[in-house]
TrEMBL record:
It comes from Umbelopsis vinacea. Keywords: Membrane, Transmembrane, Transmembrane helix, Transport. It is a multi-pass membrane protein. Coiled coil: none annotated. The lineage of its organism: Eukaryota, Fungi, Fungi incertae sedis, Mucoromycota, Mucoromycotina. This is Purine permease.
Length: 595
């Protein structure tokens, strides 16, 4: 794809987000196969060069880029639409590329929530291995549902978008689940023991995970109901000022978790006690353990972070799309070289596993309902944005009945994923946006590549040793990776906010909601003493629910931005806003200019 085409694609997505009309291109000259080439039969696909290799530009896909020496070569291959014929080798390469692009994000929420420390489940190693496997399996299964698209009999509704959309465990699960688990440890549902040195030892709390799953299942009904509403109504309910603020705060709050892991972990070792098993991170029994924040851990996490940046600078298209995995491999190699890798868990892990090998007692935890309702609102907003971008890069309509039908099917699949993933012992899965970027630069939107990616996710979950290998990665290595991933979430929110007109009303909505949201994130105990402790169980449960809402930054961001957006009137044009717009560099950009 040329630089001009990439610019046109980004301009189109921006117009979609702004709600502007766009023109649909009728050019089909770059599609594969050309119109005068008949489709191959299965036999011809397996026995001909065209069936195996096609006319794809493999050199551009794999050629590294030398910095400061001109532009890298763009992919000149034909475009492969969702249902187009695609050579076998291209399908395999694209499937592997999508798999490597999402694998780090798929496992991260489960690895973090099941780990040790305040706000986490503190589960044993075998249970964590199972949960990681379950998240991979369910992500693959739900991806197949999104990709294949099934019509509900005797209706006009669908399940799935029919696009190359890969799903994975959503990052927005982390702050909601963490706030809920923290409340359960504080109210005695989960056990923690105060030590003489002032630190707490948190006992494993699988019942808290069952409560997370059960609460998520109930809240998933919201996504299912909303999936039958037109996308235009969704955009009116959740405008850019709401979605941008919520995503920015979610990313910012997640970075805190990533930085803790980068420095050694989030277990009680973060308090650097002088004695006890947590005197070193993660414990004194870990190989070559260090104190929290030691230069060894900081440098190990930095090796991952810097590697990702270097790959983005000099890597080929293929390498850039797998930069997170490459960073993990470099970090693991260094950790293994200095004796920080513990392979005992891999040896003890089962060779084969599947769903329901371990089960959890499902329950609905009242104080967690509001946080998870906001999680599913975030799912809805992200899904609409992902599907809009996916249609655009797949050269499909981004308005009209076909587009609305794909959005309905995609949202319904996301809602059902919330139920099925909970029943399958995984936190909610949602469409990932990374795949849209890969489609744009590789010119391959084939659903066959998505199916290959989904099958690889399922296979990695079935083979239990693979999940154990991920859990053997030191916390500092995971921290270097997750800080980059979580920063990308915040960046997405900032980009959406950048599309605002920034009128006085916009500034008040954003500033008012960010003030409380970031304030709560930076000072977590700000509202800790606001509500009393009472003996009435029902009333105390109500107070706990309010406390959970007030202590969760992205919920405060969502409530604040939605209320301000509804309350503040649409004023006439402010003279100050007009003056700022005239002075803005963007106002001097003419149509067709490449910036």
């Amino acid at each position: 794809m040329s630089a001009t085409e990439e610019k046109m694609n980004m301009d189109t997505v921006d117009k979609i987000i702004r709600g502007e009309e766009i023109e649909q291109s009728s050019s089909q000259a770059s599609f594969y196969p050309p119109a005068d080439h008949p489709r191959l039969t299965w036999k011809e696909t397996l026995t001909t060069k065209r069936g195996w290799y096609g006319e794809y530009d493999y050199a551009a896909l794999c050629m590294p880029r030398l910095p400061f020496i001109g532009r890298s070569k763009s992919v000149s291959s034909p475009f492969f639409g969702p249902n187009d014929e695609i050579p076998i080798l291209v399908a395999l390469l694209m499937g592997i590329q999508h798999f490597l692009a999402v694998i780090g994000g798929v496992i991260t929420p489960t690895v973090i929530i099941s780990g040790s420390g305040a706000g986490y489940l503190n589960l044993d190693e075998s249970t964590r291995q199972y949960l990681t496997s379950a998240s991979l399996i369910l992500s693959g299964i739900m991806s197949l549902i999104q990709i294949i698209r099934v019509r509900i009999p005797k209706t006009q509704y669908y399940i799935g978008s029919g696009l190359l959309q890969i799903t994975g465990v959503a990052f927005s699960n982390i702050p909601a689940a963490s706030a809920m688990i923290s409340t359960m440890y504080d109210d005695g549902t989960c056990h923690k023991e105060l030590q003489p040195d002032g630190t707490y030892i948190y006992s494993p709390c699988p019942d808290a995970y069952g409560a997370v799953l059960g609460t998520s299942i109930v809240c998933a009904l919201l996504s299912i109901l909303i999936s039958f509403l037109p996308p235009k109504i969704m955009k009116r309910i959740f405008p850019k000022s709401v979605t941008g603020v919520v995503l920015t705060v979610i990313g910012a709050s997640l970075i805190v978790s990533g930085m803790k892991n980068w420095a050694g972990g989030s277990s009680p070792c973060i308090d650097r006690p002088e004695s006890g098993i947590f005197a070193l991170c993660p414990t004194i029994y870990a190989p070559n353990a260090q104190q929290w924040g030691s230069p060894a851990y900081i440098g190990l996490g930095a090796s991952v972070f810097i590697t990702i940046i270097i790959v983005e600078i000099v890597g080929s298209i293929f390498l850039k799309n797998t930069s997170v995995v490459i960073g993990l491999l470099v970090g693991c190699a260094i950790a293994g070289g200095v004796g920080m890798m513990d392979g005992s868990g891999i040896a003890d892990a089962p060779a084969i596993t599947f769903l329901w090998v371990k089960t959890f007692k499902l329950s609905v935890y009242g104080p967690g309902i509001i946080p998870f309702l906001f999680v599913y609102i975030d799912y809805i907003v992200e899904c609409i944005g992902d599907l809009t971008a996916a249609c655009e890069v797949s050269k499909l309509p981004v308005d009209g009945d076909e587009f609305n039908s794909r959005c309905q099917g995609g949202l319904l699949a996301d809602g059902l994923s919330g139920i099925f993933s909970g029943l399958g012992t995984s936190m909610g899965v949602v469409t990932f946006s990374q795949n849209n970027g890969i489609i744009a630069v590789t010119r391959c939107a084939s659903r066959k590549a998505g199916v290959i990616c989904a099958v690889l996710l399922i296979l990695c979950g079935v083979f239990g040793k693979i999940a154990a290998a991920f859990l053997a990665i030191p916390s500092s290595v995971m921290g270097g990776m997750t800080v980059f991933l979580f920063s990308s979430v915040a960046t997405s929110g900032i980009r959406i906010l950048g599309l605002l007109s920034w009128s006085r009303r916009d500034r008040i909505v954003v500033a008012g909601s960010l003030a409380l949201a970031l304030g709560v994130a930076l000072v977590p105990n700000f509202f800790a003493y606001l509500l009393p402790t009472v003996e009435n169980v029902a009333l105390q449960g109500f107070y706990d629910a309010i406390s959970t809402v007030l202590s969760t930054g992205y919920i405060m961001a969502g409530i604040g931005s939605i209320l301000l957006n509804l309350v503040l009137p649409e004023d006439a044009a402010d003279p100050e806003d007009i003056q700022l717009k005239e002075k803005s560099p963007a106002s001097s950009i003419q149509p067709g200019m490449v910036v």
